[in-house]
């Protein structure tokens, strides 16, 4: 064996050891960062879940009432007015917006989490709607939380009577109608609301926001407590 060959072999071996150790360290660090980010994101998701439940609790109580101004003539909302115009109210005259619970405004949550509830019994005014201005005029991706949601009319119960069929086939149910022949509908029992809870993620998420968008139905309208049913749930990144 030539002189120095063993030393060269040792150096080559050490070089390979260093390379392997560097790769192990890189993958270990990458895996640790990934686990850390997943835990951080899980915390945001859990907090958004809590915000959605806080909104549902407000809807179950009389803390939120239907805004009767949305039913009035002239109450139609343009696309740029939906976010504020359809906000859930504390009184039927529409004089006071329902706000995110004060505990979520405390230090550590301020400017991080937001929560709104929208009353979907409104009229949409499409006059002057310009899709380009919507996309490029400040209501694009960064303002997804302001975008309109489909208006949904309240539900009443049609009144049915059981009568004997003339053809002798047995009793049948027929819809009760008034003197003008219009269906008789009982007082409104269901109204629809949209809950939007969102958070601004840290810098390592490149300024992306995460939003939970939940459509709910509330019945027992006019009573002291309400049943709230979740109709749809969306996780939105914007």
Characterise this structure.
This protein is of the alpha+beta class and 238 residues long. 28% of the residues lie in helices and 24% in strands. The protein contains 3 helices and 7 strands, in the order H-H-E-H-E-E-E-E-E-E. It has helices spanning 5-60, 82-85, 131-136; strands spanning 113-119, 155-158, 160-164, 171-175, 185-200, 209-218, 228-237. Strands 1, 2, 5, 6 and 7 form a 5-stranded antiparallel β-sheet that branches. A two-stranded antiparallel sheet has the order 3-4. Strand 5 and strand 6 (209-218) form a beta hairpin. The longest helix has 56 residues, at 5-60. The chain is elongated. The N and C termini lie far apart (66 Å). The mean pLDDT is 80.
Descriptive terms for the model:
single chain; alpha+beta; two-stranded antiparallel sheet; 238 residues; 28% helix
TL;DR?
The protein has 238 residues and is α+β, with helices and mostly antiparallel strands. The protein is 28% helix and 24% strand.
Produce the secondary structure layout.
Layout: H1 5-60, H2 82-85, E1 113-119, H3 131-136, E2 155-158, E3 160-164, E4 171-175, E5 185-200, E6 209-218, E7 228-237
Antiparallel strand pairs: 1-5, 2-5, 3-4, 5-6, 6-7
Q: What gyration radius follows from the Cα positions, in whole Å?
A: 29 Å
User: Beta-sheet strand percentage?
Assistant: 15-25%
SSE order, one letter for each helix or strand: HHEHEEEEEE
Summed over residues and divided by their number, the pLDDT gives a mean of 80
- Helical fraction equals 25-40%
List how many beta strands DSSP finds.
Answer: 7
Largest sheet: 5 strands, antiparallel
Number of alpha- plus pi-helical segments: 3
Structural class: alpha+beta
General shape: elongated
Unreliable parts: none
Question: Distance N terminus to C terminus?
Answer: 66 Å
């Amino acid at each position: 064996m030539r002189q120095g060959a063993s030393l060269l072999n040792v150096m080559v071996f050490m070089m390979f050891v260093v390379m392997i150790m560097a790769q192990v360290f890189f993958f270990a660090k990458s895996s640790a960062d990934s686990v850390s980010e997943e835990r951080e994101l899980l915390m945001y998701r859990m907090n958004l879940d809590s915000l959605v439940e806080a909104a549902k609790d407000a809807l179950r109580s009389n803390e939120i009432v239907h805004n009767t101004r949305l039913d009035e003539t002239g109450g139609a909302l343009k696309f740029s007015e939906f976010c504020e115009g359809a906000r859930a109210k504390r009184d039927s005259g529409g004089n006071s917006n329902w706000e995110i619970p004060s505990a979520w405004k405390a230090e550590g949550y301020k400017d991080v989490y937001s929560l709104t509830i929208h009353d979907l019994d409104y009229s949409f005014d499409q006059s002057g709607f310009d899709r380009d201005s919507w996309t490029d005029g400040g209501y694009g991706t960064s303002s997804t939380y302001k975008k309109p949601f489909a208006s949904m009319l309240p539900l009443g119960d049609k009144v049915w009577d059981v009568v004997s069929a003339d053809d002798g086939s047995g009793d049948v149910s027929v819809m009760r109608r008034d003197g003008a022949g219009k269906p008789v509908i009982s007082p409104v029992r269901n109204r629809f609301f949209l809950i939007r809870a969102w958070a601004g993620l840290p810098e390592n998420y490149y300024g992306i926001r995460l939003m939970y968008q939940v459509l709910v139905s509330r019945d027992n309208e006019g009573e002291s407590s309400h049943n709230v049913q979740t109709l749809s749930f969306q996780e939105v990144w914007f």
